[in-house]
Structure formats: structure tokens, C-alpha cells
Amino acid sequence: MRIISGRARGTKLITIEGQDTRPTTDRVKEAIFSMLHSEVYETRALDLFAGSGALGLELISRGGSHVTFVEQSRQAIDCIQKNIEKTHFEGQVRCMQQSVEQALKALKEACFDIVFMDPPYHKGYINDTITMLRQYDILKINGIIVLEHHMKDEEVHTTVSGYELIKQKKYGITGVSVFRRIK
Prior knowledge:
The chain is α/β, with parallel strands linked by helices.
């Protein structure tokens, strides 16, 4: 796994061993950033269920201004920290080792431009997390949620109050759904 484009292009990222995290493949990451295209420059992003931090670090490499990583696992936070050091993005990030629910309460009204969500498959986090983003007013109006999910086994509501589904793609078993906040 590596940074695909931008300032840190080609930097190899550390991943976590085992089955607890599922790194975003380079193919899916490239597809996500192709979908976002011009949306990334000077944006503030929230990377939920961050794993190795690959999505948030890719955003910074491509011109994003700041990323807040949220990850409950100590091992994953250590991995993110090492990847931050490898990319030299120390001044543009914040790491929060806590549950997504705790982090969203702490970040209430923080106003991010983009939220990346790559929750563990089959755990039921998707709809509750999207609801909390709205409840705590985390995402700016016209802001974007990029959701990675299991394409077959996880129901993603395409009509969510206050959001519109603008893109949805399938990459093997992985689905990527992009929502825009409309109100």
C-alpha cells in the first residue's frame, strides 16, 4: 500500500497485520479520489475507522489542509503515527484514539468538508454513524461522505435525511458510496 499521488507520491505505508483491519486497496483508493477530483484541495477531513490512515494521508498528499483520524485500536493509532512520520505530515493531522461515537460527540459542530468512513464489515456501524454526523453537525452543507462498505451484505440507505447519494461504485466485494449533505 502506498500514497498514489501528490507530495508524498510513492511513499510506502505500513499496514496492520491480522484480520482486525481491512486496508483500502490502491485500486479503490484511486477510484475514490477520481470521484472526489476537485473536492480535495484545501479541505478539512475526518477519517473515521481510520485503520492505517491511508485515505486521510492521500488527501493531504493531494492538497488537503488537515485530517482528523479516529481509530479505537491502539495498534492502528501506532500505525497511523508511523505513516504520518513517513509522509512528513505531522503539522496537518490529529489522531483520536477512541470510539467513533465518543469522537463525534467530542467533535460536535467541527465542520469538516469530507468524512471518510471505512467501518468494519458486518458490524452495523454505517447508518448509526451517518445519523450521528447529522445529529452533531459534523459535516458542512455541501460536504461529502465517502463510505466504503461490503457491497452484498450491508444495506446502505440511499435516501438518508439531509444527504443525497451522488455516486455509487462496486469494486469486487467493496462498494463505495458518496453522499453530499444538502441541508
